[in-house]
Amino acid sequence: MPSASDTPNLASPTLPAGSITAMETINGDNAKLEASHFFSGFSIPIPALHDIVGIELVVTAAFSPSSVSGTANDCFRIAPDGRTFTDALSPNAAFPSLTDGVATRTFGGSSNLLDLSPTLLESAAAASFESLVITYIHPAAADIFHVDELKIVIHYQKKPGAPIQIISGRVQLINGRISI
Of 38, 56, 77, 94, which residue is least crowded by CB atoms under 10 Å? Predict the structure, then answer.
């Protein structure tokens, strides 16, 4: 099962933001022989009253043979709900050939929702992304994709106008009333 870590960014106590990372390390010697592969079993808890503002897919991989076309890089898709997949994602740079070694490439970013609808993301976040599926499909039978690590990073920030959140400290009401 992929592991998840929470790395909050509390630079602004009034508008906390952060990211949660889930990572799966793959034995490339096993996964590389498959024509496609589904990565699942993630659990990414997004704090309540927060919006997802970006999604990054970070893949460490290489292609073999070295004569693959540029479209071979556009083989990853994400389905936050396990059913509704994005179109093929394009990385920030082409993957190298295996003879040059594996490299890390990024799809999306801290303010890129990968063309996923906010409603779909909100629904997936409410379920801690437990149905999240990431897949790759080889564009040609001759291509072998050597995947060594796959990481998904979900960036979030507090919803505008959300209720007061106490980050630390204590509140004491001596007299009066609080209406919600």
Answer: 38
Residues 6+ apart with CB under 8 A from 137: 35, 36, 75, 77
Q: ω into residue 96 within 30 of 0, thus cis? A: no
The answer to whether the CB of 82 falls within 8 A of the CB of 46 is: no
CA distances from 29 to 24, 25, 105, 144 (A): 15, 12, 19, 11
d(CA 13, CA 70): 44
Model pTM? 0.72
Phi, psi of 110, rounded to the nearest 5 degrees: -70, -15
Neighbours of 144 (CB within 10 A): 17
pLDDT tens per residue, range 100-111: 878 888 999 999
Question: How does pLDDT run across 106-145, given as a tens digit for each residue?
Answer: 999 999 999 898 889 988 888 888 888 888 776 555 667 7
